[in-house]
Specification:
- The complex is a heterotrimer.
- Chain A is α/β, with parallel strands linked by helices.
- The longest helix of chain A has 18 residues, at about 185-200.
- Chain A has an 8-stranded mixed beta sheet with strand order 6-7-8-3-9-10-12-11, with helices on both faces. A 4-stranded antiparallel beta sheet of chain A has the order 2-1-4-5, covered by helices on one side.
- Chain A folds into 2 domains: about 5-225, 3-Layer(aba) Sandwich (Rossmann fold), CATH 3.40.50; about 245-330, no CATH class.
- Chain A contains 12 helices and 12 strands.
- In chain A, helix 5 runs parallel beside helix 6.
- By secondary structure, chain C is mostly helical.
- Chain C has one domain (about 20-50, about 90-305): MetI-like (MetI-like fold, Orthogonal Bundle), CATH 1.10.3720.10.
- In chain C, helix 9 runs parallel beside helix 10 (about 250-260), helix 9 (about 205-240) runs antiparallel to helix 12 (about 270-295) and helix 10 packs antiparallel against helix 12 (about 270-295).
- The chains are: A alpha/beta, B mainly alpha, C mainly alpha.
- The interface of B and C includes residues 22, 155 and 296 of B.
- The structure holds adenosine-5'-triphosphate, iron/sulfur cluster and magnesium ion (MG).
- Adenosine-5'-triphosphate (ATP) binds near residues 13 and 40 of chain A.
Chain lengths: ~350, ~325, ~300
């Protein structure tokens, strides 16, 4: 059953240069106990989605269309008091900036306790044993509880943040790039912890990352996002047999997914400005397979397999694209001119 | 905590070192005095023998090192000797004048901090608006206007022209009560306090306002506030976090302000004929009353140093991030 | 502080001499509205300081006389005495012009002196570290422990008031902040790759310090020099107002002192307001320039 449904969700930021629609008609669902990965380049709107789920968009950002339904209730319509009961108790967040996610002038323990006290009436002993349990779970020493955030390394803060996110045993944890800024070994450790927690506690997870390899390794289902839209969505098929050229490009960029001896290719150029979106396919500017049709008409998501959708006019030629997408020159040549 | 103790010790030693250095400079200065410091009250018809006796009495015959040691000891034990002029113990005079100065400074600082902090958080809130920009530039400009001229103007207008306030002094003639504390509880004192206090505030309010504005901005933009919201905390709790973070640097600011003002408002004391320690220094220098001048100078320096010391230490206590290294 | 380098890049790399560099900086400051107003005002003050005494209708201590040959005391402003006269019949307007020169002399000389002193100490202290740094910084600590105004009063009452002494005292007061700021800047510069490169290329310690590091702290030194001019003028005014200025010259603070003591606050606003206003205006115009300059050095200020 669907735990969280984003239904035709659009989110805009008011800027000096006009409204920037950072998320545009996104529909994804997360089932109970499911591990969903959300991938896309920097700036495509991933954090915006995470913030919208928890209702912490900045003052200039707002949901302009669609719903965020948690167990059928639209979170965007709840009063602050109602929303506060869902926050952390039901849905917790490991923020992209866990480095700065703790208040610097309170100890870690005080801050985790504060999360508990806001929602539960636990005794001191209960709180203590719960925190102890979680620190074990994320692999941290009890002795560090009385420390202040600045005394922690980046990796430890991230773990502490995960512990804090899990402390109320929420049904969904949104982890927004939980490993940015950490070195590779620590990244692996932390992702392992999250995966372990997911398996042991059967909690639903939304893992946000720009790293296709991480998603491939950890998630049950994958949503690929580009310039505010979902361009491909499905199970492991998504990176095993991608139908959208952007997904193909993303897979190229990560060595773990590439076949032996294949070159690492990154997609040239940058995504379009949200304030000046093209009329046709948003990827056309960078897509080596773009045609006139692509530049005129925006493609809709079409089914390409069992629970697998992609938003490309030329899904029929996907096999051909996949072949040529392996070669550097395909990408270097720039968008097709035909 | 070990680091803290070592840090405190080091700061204390530094404090002592600076105090002793300042005292030494002071000693040298007063030794450089042209002529005889006793000339003020040695009459020209004193006989040589009488002069010698006076010199012995004031210890001016002893070898220099002994004078230095005695001076140092006396100063550090706040034994400032006897006023040449008033013939009473200097420490009593200085304490009285310090209280008077404090009676002007403390209300001004308290009000400046409270109002400045409110103004600052409003500015932080209205960040980027036109009013905010104007107020900030206004505050910065205000900080550079010489407050003694503001004092003169204010006195000219509100006291001499409009007659709303007394033209200086701390109380009206005959207004002194039994004790200092009784005196400052009179309405008469309040009437005398308002103008100098306001003038001090025009300047002193700028620092907490600008400070709180920038810390507020910093705190408002910080990620941990998002997490607090995501945790489902009430708005009130979140404000507690924000304020606690934003107020930290203010504590240091208050201490520094206090210390600075004890020497910085000599001018206002002169303009408003306020019988404080700064005015006492000026008149002691004019009267060649060196023991009093010395003591006034010393306590002013000491107060700055002690308040700066307090600021440093306090900041460490309230901000866990400060590393004592 | 990384932003400071942007400026340095233009200020120091082109080897077209200090004057040209200053001119360029002033040009950029002039592009900010506050900077332009401030610069114009300062220029005006500078012109007055230079030609003021020459065009002043009366001498700084010259008593005006009326038709009857008596001293014209406390005349309100009129055609012949633009800002009236003092109790001794001295023309306030003339004194104001003369006073501008004194204010600027004290401000400029002590600012230059203090910045040279402070920059040198900051450079040496920050660059060499170790005991040199320890000693210099303790000296700085002591200097910070001395309350300026009381100290200056004591010294002046011992040595007797004179303009050079005032300048010296103000200089001694101003260098402390500069040296701390410069030292901090040097500490960060020291770790930059281009310093390593210079060392690897065999540059001597002093070579590195004065050829590679010093040019990079100069923009900051200029800032403190401007602030120093402001401080110098203010402090001179304060000392003179308290009656500890050089009695042989007239300055804005001295005028206020005379006016204050003569009770002109009750009787002769034209004697009190002009010197105070000139002082305030000068201080604010320097503030406007330093503000623009700071924005230039640190673009983040604009956002803050
Ligand atoms: N407060 C804001 N005001 C205006 N625009 C914003 C704001 N926050 C984000 N944006 C814009 O919205 C778009 C999406 O931002 P978002 O942070 O969701 O991206 P992201 O996918 O999380 O990127 P990253 O991988 O860098 O974290 C970006 O183009 C960004 O510039
Ligand atoms: S629609 Fe066209 S431009 Fe867009 S991804 Fe598909 S082929 Fe490329
Ligand atoms: Mg993000």
């Amino acid at each position: 059953m669907a735990l969280l449904e984003l239904d035709d969700l659009s989110i805009e930021y008011r800027t000096a240069a006009g409204a920037a629609r950072a998320v545009d008609g996104v529909s994804i669902t997360i089932d109970e106990g499911e591990y969903l990965g959300l991938v896309g380049e920097s700036g495509c709107g991933k954090s915006t989605i995470a913030k919208a789920i928890l209702g912490i968009l900045p003052p200039n950002g707002a949901v302009t269309k669609g719903q965020i339904r948690y167990r059928g209730r639209d979170l965007t319509r709840l009063s602050l008091a109602e929303l506060n009961r869902v926050r952390w108790r039901q849905i917790a967040l490991v923020p992209q900036s866990a480095m700065n996610g703790f208040d610097p002038v309170y100890t870690i323990e005080q801050q985790i306790n504060e999360a508990i006290e806001t929602h539960m009436k636990w005794s001191a002993a209960e709180k203590q044993s719960r925190i102890a349990e979680l620190f074990r779970l994320v692999g941290m020493e009890q002795s560090r509880l009385k420390d202040y955030p600045h005394q922690f390394s980046g990796g430890m803060r991230q773990r502490a943040m995960i512990a804090m996110a899990m402390v109320l045993d929420p049904n969904l944890v949104v982890a927004d790039e939980p490993t940015t800024g950490l070195d590779v070994i620590v990244q692996d450790q932390i992702l392992h912890r999250i995966k372990e927690i997911h398996i042991r506690l059967k909690k639903a997870m939304l893992l946000i990352t720009h790293d296709m390899a991480v998603v491939a390794e950890n998630c049950d289902r994958i949503a690929v996002m580009y310039a505010g839209r979902i361009v491909e969505y499905g199970a492991h098929d998504v990176f095993e047999r991608p139908f959208h050229p952007y997904t193909m490009g993303l897979c190229n960029a990560f060595p773990d997914l590439a076949d032996e001896g294949r070159e690492l290719i990154s997609i040239p150029k940058a995504p379009p400005s949200l304030l000046d979106l093209p009329t046709g396919c948003r990827f056309a500017e960078r897509c080596p397979f773009a045609t006139d049709l692509c530049r005129k008409l925006e493609p809709a998501l079409v089914s390409v397999g069992d629970g697998h959708v992609a938003a490309c006019h030329h899904v029929a030629r996907a096999a051909e694209f996949r072949d040529s997408a392996r070669h550097v020159r395909t990408w270097q040549a720039g968008p097709a001119t035909a | 905590m070990h680091g803290l103790r070592a840090y405190l010790l080091r700061r204390l030693i530094l404090l002592l070192f600076v105090v002793v250095s300042v005292l030494t400079i002071l000693f040298v200065l007063f030794k450089l005095l042209p002529g005889n410091p006793l000339s003020v009250f040695i009459d020209s018809n004193y006989s040589d023998e009488m002069v010698q006796r006076q010199k012995r009495l004031w210890g001016l015959d002893d070898p220099l090192w002994l004078q230095y040691v005695r001076y140092m000891w006396n100063m550090l034990t706040f034994d400032f000797g006897t006023s040449f002029f008033q013939m009473t113990p200097v420490s009593g005079i200085v304490i009285e004048k310090l209280l008077h100065t404090g009676a002007m400074i403390v209300p001004a600082v308290v009000l400046s901090v409270v109002l400045g902090a409110l103004l600052g958080s409003w500015l932080g809130w209205r960040r980027g608006s036109r009013q905010e920009g104007a107020v900030v530039v206004g505050l910065l400009a205000l900080r550079s206007v010489p407050s003694f001229f503001v004092g003169i103007l204010v006195l000219m207008v509100f006291s001499y022209q409009l007659g709303w306030f007394p033209p200086g002094g701390m109380v009206s003639i005959g207004g002194h009560q039994e004790s200092f504390w009784e005196t400052i509880l009179t309405l008469d004192f309040l009437g005398h306090l308002i103008l100098p206090c306001l003038v001090l505030m025009t300047r002193e309010i700028t620092s907490p306002a600008l400070l709180l504005r920038s810390t507020m901005l910093e705190v408002k933009g910080s990620d941990f506030l998002d997490i607090l919201r995501a945790k489902g905390l009430s708005e009130r709790r979140i404000r507690v976090h924000a304020t606690r973070n934003a107020l930290l640097p203010l504590v240091t600011d208050i201490a520094v302000m206090m210390g600075f003002l004890f020497q910085g408002q000599v001018l206002l004391e002169i303009i408003f004929a306020w019988p404080g320690v700064g005015r006492e220094l000026v008149s002691a220098l004019n009267d060649l009353d060196y023991p009093v001048a010395q003591a006034c100078f010393f306590v002013m320096a000491l107060i700055i140093l002690v308040f700066n010391f307090i600021a440093d230490v306090l900041y460490g206590f309230i901000d866990p991030r400060v590393a004592y290294d | 502080m990384a932003e400071a380098e942007i400026l340095t890049a233009s200020g120091a790399r082109k080897k077209s001499g200090a004057i040209a560099a200053i001119a360029r900086v002033l040009g950029v400051i002039g592009r900010y509205p506050t900077g332009a107003i401030g610069l114009t005002l300062i220029l005006l003050f500078a012109v007055i300081a230079v030609i003021g005494p020459a065009v002043a209708p009366f001498g700084p201590f010259e008593a005006t006389q009326n038709e009857l040959g008596r001293v014209a005391r406390l005349l309100p402003p009129s055609g012949s005495n633009l800002l009236g006269t003092t109790t001794q019949g001295i023309d306030v307007f003339s004194q104001l012009l003369w006073g501008t020169r004194v204010a600027l002399i004290v401000g400029v000389i002590s600012a230059i002196g203090s910045v040279i002193l402070g920059t040198l100490i900051g450079l040496v202290s920050g660059y060499f570290g170790g005991w040199v740094d320890e000693v210099l910084m303790r000296v700085t600590d002591v200097a910070f422990g001395i309350p300026f105004l009381p100290f200056a009063l004591v010294v002046i009452s011992i040595a007797g008031p004179s303009l050079p002494l005032v300048i010296l005292l103000v200089t001694l007061f101003l260098w402390r902040t500069t040296s701390r700021v410069i030292r901090a800047q040097v500490l960060t510069l020291k770790t930059r790759p281009f310093i390593w490169a210079a060392r690897a290329a065999g540059a001597s310690e002093f070579g590195i310090l004065f050829i590679h590091i010093a040019p990079n702290v100069l923009p900051l030194s200029f800032l403190y020099m401007a602030i120093g001019v402001q401080g110098g003028v203010m402090l001179e005014a304060a000392l003179s107002f308290l009656g500890f200025g050089d009695p042989n010259v007239i300055s804005w603070g001295g005028m206020l002192n005379h006016a204050f003591r003569a009770g002109a606050m009750r009787t002769a606003w034209w004697w009190v307001v002009p010197p105070g206003l000139a002082l305030s205006l000068f201080v604010i115009s320097v503030f406007m320039v330093t503000r623009a300059y700071e924005e230039l050095l640190n673009p983040r200020l604009r956002e803050m």
